[in-house]
Structure formats: structure tokens, C-alpha cells
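Page 37, top half.
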Amino acid sequence: MAILCCTSHAHNTTKKPSKNPPKFLPLSTFFFFPPMAFSSSQSLLLSLISFNFILLASSARSILPIHNNGGGHTNQSDCPLFIGSWIHDESYPIYQASSCPLIDAEFNCQMYGRPDSDYLKYRWKPANCELPRFNGLEFLTKMRGKKVMFVGDSLGRNQWESLICMIWSAVPTAATKMNKGDPLSTFKFLDYGVDVSFYRAPYLVDIESVGGRRVLKLEDISKNARPWMNVDVLSFNTGHWWTHKGSLQGWDLVESGGSVSEDMNRLVALHTGLKTWAQWVDSNVDTTTTRIFFQSVSPTHYNTSEWTAGATSNAKTCYGETTPMSGSAYPGVYPNQMKVIDAVIQEMQNPAYILDITTLSELRKDAHPSIYSGDLSPGQRANPDHSADCSHWCLPGLPDTWNQLFYTALFF
């Protein structure tokens, strides 16, 4: 059995992508559209045709997630980090919620009455190796004088808070400072000169207010991207907000290709927005000095058929779930959003390292706040079928594993 040893690599070196990484041929190879003016409906139709081809090309390859496509040091040919299983381990968690006052109420399951604690006692075991245990002091020492930033939605904030708690548990008396704002919040470990930040940008691309309406600008990222410059480690995520509609939708109009509309195919929109992000990274980030990660889509657990396998169940959400799913394969259809992310990142000049937490997180139906969230009223807690949070994750909990994998990919 291979064991990831403790030999670290210099922070400012970047492993080149593997030889002959899979690439998609340009769409012009398959479709020729002569130069002409298209109406907005014709443009959307062409976008759908092109996008469906991307999904077909993505589906034609193995649906196994991309595990290492550049930028990482871990030899994943010997140790595929994201294929494995959950092992019960009494030495977990590595910190207690009561010792980390940073945890937001919506993630603090123990404070808000979760009666079980076994969900805290699992560690991720890759199939062919052991992950190094997270060491907060080592993280600070190796990152001395550097900046880490998570960029994305509330799942990115979930991970950001987890990482701070994991580090803080190793240096509880260290001098720290918190600058909390919107969209940027930064936690500083002053003795080490290490900044760990979260920048809220659920779509990554910009949203602008025009005439009192929020316009999602799929081909503009300049406003959001300004604070990302001169950061040593950037970890991006997006996904959930692209599907929201009604009162949960974060925009009123969407702009693409010079046209503004009230809606469009959401996967096409995600693809366009991600291409804008990828072009910004390729044009503005020096990957010899900056590490770029992209966190894959975090799954939800609102569909009990994913884990009941046809058995009779009265459950309608993750409420009451206390153990992970068994096995190591993704139960069901792999998300189309991840196919889009895979396709865009494969075509980058310097592909981001995909921290592929989708499958291992899908197995953790037990790890959500459910009704044990400070964001819920007593009345909402009494109605778990309609109020349970099966999107975010308890802290301590699953995001600590995301950060253990992040730590492994960063230093080993």
C-alpha cells in the first residue's frame, strides 16, 4: 500500500499537465456557421446545438471524474485521491465546534441541537494509500507570508470556515484578526503573515445593477476579479446558483453575446460564464507562482431514492440520516454541471487542479445540517420535509475532508 510521505515541494513550483491530456476539438471542426447576423433566438439555438455537442463529447469519455489535470504535486497515478471509501475513525474530528467561534450558525449543528455525533467520526480513505493527517502548524509554516482565497458561493464559505478552524485548533493562542465584509472577508494569522480569505461570487462572473435590475454578465468578470490578483493560492467553486429560479434566483436579466434576456438554458449559461473565468485565469494568472484549484460541485441530498435503492422509506430529505452510504461509486447520474466544468477546464492553457469532492461528498447523506441550523426558526425545525438544509454541511464535518485533500494536493 502506498503512503503519501511527508516530503513537501516548494510552493512556487507547478507540475505541468500530463502528456497528451484529453482535449475537445474546436466546435468549428464540426460546425461551420458563415458570417451573418443572428437573431437572439437563432443565437440561443446555435448555443444549444454547440453545448449539446460538448455534453456528448464529454459523455463519450469515461464518466470517472478528472483527478489531476495540472497544477498538483501528488502522484495520483499511484494514489487517486478521490476514489476510495469512508472509514470510521474515533480520532476524528480534529477540532470541536465549541473551540472555533468563527463557525456560522447555519453550519454549527452541535450548537443547534443535533443529537448524534457519529457523523464526525469518519475519515476519507483513498483506495491505494493513506492521506497525511492535516497539520495546521505545518500549513502556516509552509504558507508563511502568503495569501489563500476561496472564491464562490456559500459552499466555498463552508470550506473557508472549516480551514480556519482546522488551522486555529493547532495554534489556539496565536495572534489573529478577522476582517468580515461582503463580498470579501479575511482571517489573518498575524504571527505567520498568512491570510485566509473568502470572496463571495456565486457565479464567478459579474452581476451589475442596471435600472434597478440585476444583470448577470456572462462575459464580464473584471469587477469580481480585481481582489483575486496577487493571491498565492486561489480555490474557486460555482454550481448551485446556476439552477436557482424564482425567489432564489440571484439575477433578473442575463447578458450574453451582446444580448440581454430574461432567461436562457442554464447549462449553456454556466458554460459561457466558466469560459469567461478560464480565459481570465489563462490571461492574468502566472501559474508558476500562483496555485489554482477548482472545487467540483458539492451534491445535495433531497432525493432519497439516491440511497434507498427502491426500498420503502418515509423519508423525504436528509433529515434523520446518521451514516454514510456504502461503496465508492457515484449513485445515479453524474451531474451535467460537472461535465461542463470538466470540458472547460480541459481546454485551459494551464488547467486548474480539480479538487474533485463530488462523489465522496455524495456518499455523505448524513453530514448536512438538516434541521440543526441556526438559520431555522422553531416552526421550520418542526417541519423537516420542507425546511431541512441538505445542501450545506455541518462543521466540524465533511468540509474538513475537503481541506485535508486540499492540503495534500498543495504540499505533497
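Page 37, bottom half:
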Amino acid sequence: MKEEQRDLYSLIINQLVYDGFLNEAIKISESTMIPCPLKNEATNKLLSIYQSATSTPGGRSNFTSMDLDEDAGSQVGSGGTSNISNSGKNLIDDIINSKDSLDLDDLNQQNSSESSNKVQPTVSFLTKFITTHKNACRCAKFSWDGKYVATGSSDTSIKLLDVNKMRNYNQTKNETTEDSAPSRPVIRTFYDHTQPINDLDFHPSAPILSSASKDGTIRFYDYKSSLKRSFKYIQDSHSIRTINFHPCGDMILAGTDHNMIRLYNVNTFQSFTARKVNEHHHAAINQVRFSLDGGIFASCSKDNTIKIWDANNFQLINTFNAPHSNKEPTTVQISRNQKYLLSCGRDSMVKLWEITSGRLIYSINTGVNQSGGQNKNRISATFNYTEDFIITNDEQPSVCVVYNSRTREQVQKLSGHNNTVRYIAASPVENALMTCSLDHRGRFWTEDTLTLQQQSSSLPTTTITTKEE
């Protein structure tokens, strides 16, 4: 559904509630997935617009024709996903084009020349804000525009935080106190699940946050309203382990304790799965992630495989068998240019793959699981927004490490948590991170520009010189 259509239906729903037609408003809200306001929050803006329009000379309306095409989302089972809305597409294009994406072909060309002077990218993160749950902080997600980040916990709560307020926050409070700071970076806390939160995702264009839980539901929240509960939900018979919106916003992938990946239409809640039974995973799904343009998606499972799928027809493209030495892969991420797949697994390795050929490009041994016995928690790895760096777990469970994605050199260790780091989320628009830990805390990290300036002024320029063998 286009943004103009959402605005129109929102006006209609508000007007119906304002005029007392609550049942009719709820029906439209459920059909369009647009939140229905409370009676005391509804507005009669639609009537005001109409009165203003009809008060022009001659009584003619100033309404311009609005493109109200039928829902562009043809069912996946019939051969296609939805078109991306203009606002969503512009945002996605901005993310794709904001920086050069990871391309190791360029690096190989440089290394094949007699010499190459290349100043390596550098980064330094510092903690700017700490949010505290009542139990383990299990997952986090940044919004597509980078303005918000949400954290989910074993205590069943979800916190929504304002990134700009956290960035400008002076972390002078004691870490054991609550988040009741004057600047109020925590702008909303949602309570609607009955069991721990497993995953979160933001709608690409609408103010909607989605959550997945062990209670078998996917819930949808309007984070611009004052409501603390979801306005709509999907009920499944299995624990929902992972979710991811398609860039069009009309579809959402879901991986559960069941071996079949679901693709839901978020307007009708109609569910789709791959037709060929032999193409499915054979165990619970650990993670599903779309590419930025929505053309393909990746999945990883407890059956120790990674699969690449065509999102347009839900057909399998490739299967990576035992990519992590017969240990389950825990996270997957497709690079912006769709050339590479970043994965990590319980073998303690972070690996970069070429998607088309399935070739392993390199691996990084994090050391996780090699000290202190078996680690029962998922290992997490993610690119930063420029894909110049990979952030993942360290052999010290409470520490994260930043690696150069081209040279695999360690850039920085991120210390501060008091227990195992379970999840790492990166902003799509800037060098900002949210790390989630079993110490109940989510730590917001942003770029330490002062340190970088001091380093650049005191250190000589770093160059890499390579010779042709």
C-alpha cells in the first residue's frame, strides 16, 4: 500500500471513530493494518479537509486525483512480491548509495598491481547510553532511517529508544539506575507478549514495529501513538524465532521452531511457503534476512545449512551444506550489492561467502566456544553501515570485537558488559551499534570522533604496499 493510501485510510478511520462508528473503523483498520485510535484520540481532520476544500469559489473541490491502484502485492504463490512504495524505495536507495558497498574484487585488483597506497578505514566506538531491562536483553533492531532502535528482552518487554537523544546523552548516571533521564531516550515501552522476545523489525516506510516471541505470535505496534500494546498480531502454532520485513512492507518473513519458513501478507495474514517439500530446511530456523532490494533472502537453520532463496517465487537458489563444520549457523546477512553473505555459527567462526558460487572467501576465528566450555547462546555478527567493518563476539563472552572487513585485522574491542553478549545490531545510516547482553543491558555505541581526530593528527598516514609475486 502506498503512503498516500495509508494517509487517506488513516483519516477515514479517525473520522469514523470520531463520529462513533467504531465497529466500521475496526474492520477497515484490520483490513489495511492501520492502527485504530482510541475514542479520545481520534480526530475529525477529514471533515475539516472536506469543509476547506468545498469552501473554495464555485464550491469545487481542491482534491487532486490520488492514485489508488489495487494492492500491488501479487501473492507469492502466484509468482511475485509487492512493489516497493516510493518512500520506502527512496530510503532503500539512499542506504544502498550512501557508501561504496563491500567489493573484494577491487581489493584483489589492487593487490595484483606492483604497489598500492590505501588508507585503511578506521573507527572507534564508545558507549553513549545504557538501557536496562528486568531480564536478559536478547535482540535489537534499528529503524530503516536510523532514528530509532528497539530492544527486546526475556522479561517480555520491548523498549523503543530515540537515537538522537542517546547520541547527545551525557552518561553520568549510575548504570544500575533506571532510564528515567531528563532527556528520555526511552520513548516507549511495549508490553504485550507473554514469553521472551526473539526478534524485532521495523516497517520500511510506516511507523510500525514488529516483534517475534516464544509465545508464538508476531505483533505489530504503532510507535507514533501512545498505545503500549499491539494493534494487530499473527498467531502461529510454534515459537517465532526470527522475522524480517520485505522492503515493500507488505510481506514479512517468519522462521519458527518448525522447519518451513513462512511468508505472511501483513494486510491479509495469508501465509506462503515453498512448494517443493525437499527444498525446506529440516529443523528450526535460526534467522531469515532479505537483501536490501528484496530480490533474494537468506535463511539459516539448526539443520546446519544456509539457504539462498528467490523472494519473487519462493524458489531455492542455493544450499550451503555444513558451512560451519556441522555446527549450526546462527546469523546471516546479505551485503548491499548482493555479492556476499556474512554468516556466523557455533563453530566460533565468522565467514564471508560469495553468493553466486558458494565459494568461501575468508573466515575469522572469534575464539568463542573455545574457552569456558560450550556456549549456549547465539553468536552474532553484522556489518557496519559502510560494510568496512564486521562486529562480532569475542572469546571473552562480555566483549565484542570490530574487524576490518577487507583485511580481517582487529580494529577495536568493545568492553563494558558484565555478562555474555547475545546480539549485535548496527545502524543502516551511521556508525552506531546496540549490543544486547545477558546482564539485562543494551548498550548504545556511537563513533568516538574526538579519539579519531586525535589519532589522525598524531599518527602518520597508514599505507599498504604490496608487490606482485
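Margin note: The chain is about 15% helix and 35% strand.
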